Structure to design on (220 residues):
């Protein structure tokens, strides 16, 4: 069984659109005075909260990155359902705001934040939030150490052995016995990293889907 680490394909000759959160005030801003962590906490777990995005251009990939999660075009779900891909669900509590709907004040703010607003999309494709449900653990051979867990904000500080940070080039290994058998799965404990099986890669290539890149990781 082969496993793959999932990353974003940002597009080669042309950049794919990505979603910028419109209603950032709904994101939980954490500024912890105990561990110093400054971050936006995901609100993606709360599916009752409607999320609104702006897309950075009109070049849509099947999987699109947003600030905190991934969104997909409907055909991804149709294909995955047909091919019986497991370990995810979709949430349609989402809205895409087009360029002509963005108020001038907001456009100014976006320009200040460095965005090329005039290229933002004027289309609102039907999209879903893509939520991964499967779970597995990383094997110790991945050499990722949990340094601390903040008891105030629950921020987990981790690093690769002998490095001050989590080294993206250090190979990862999945503990096969901890894997729940899902085609899409998250790393238990971290939740950030998303992995998949060989089946997903096969289906992705068969239907020429776009927006993801895969790096093989070994199961032990
Ligand atoms: Zn903290």
């Amino acid at each position: 069984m082969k496993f793959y680490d999932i990353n974003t394909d940002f597009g080669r000759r042309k950049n794919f659109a990505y979603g910028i959160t419109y209603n950032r005030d709904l994101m939980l801003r954490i500024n912890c005075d105990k561990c110093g962590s400054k971050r936006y906490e995901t609100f993606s777990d709360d599916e009752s909260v409607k999320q609104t995005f702006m897309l950075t251009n009109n070049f849509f990939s099947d999987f699109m990155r947003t600030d905190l999660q991934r969104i997909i075009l409907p055909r991804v779900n149709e294909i995955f359902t047909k091919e019986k891909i497991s370990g995810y669900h979709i949430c349609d509590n989402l809205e895409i705001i087009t360029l002509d709907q963005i108020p001038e004040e907001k456009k100014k703010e976006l320009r200040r934040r460095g965005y090329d607003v005039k290229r933002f999309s004027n289309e609102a494709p039907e999209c879903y939030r893509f939520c991964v449900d499967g779970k597995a653990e990383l094997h110790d051979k991945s050499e990722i150490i949990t340094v601390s867990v903040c008891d105030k904000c629950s921020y987990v500080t981790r690093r690769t052995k002998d490095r001050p940070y989590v080294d993206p080039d250090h190979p990862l290994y999945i503990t096969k016995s901890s894997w729940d058998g899902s085609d899409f799965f998250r790393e238990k404990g971290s939740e950030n990293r998303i992995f998949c099986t060989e089946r997903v890669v096969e289906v992705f290539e068969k239907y020429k889907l776009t927006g993801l890149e895969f790096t093989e990781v070994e199961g032990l």
Q: What stands out?
A: The chain has a mean pLDDT of 91. DSSP finds three helices and 17 strands in the chain. The first strand starts at residue 3 and ends at 8.
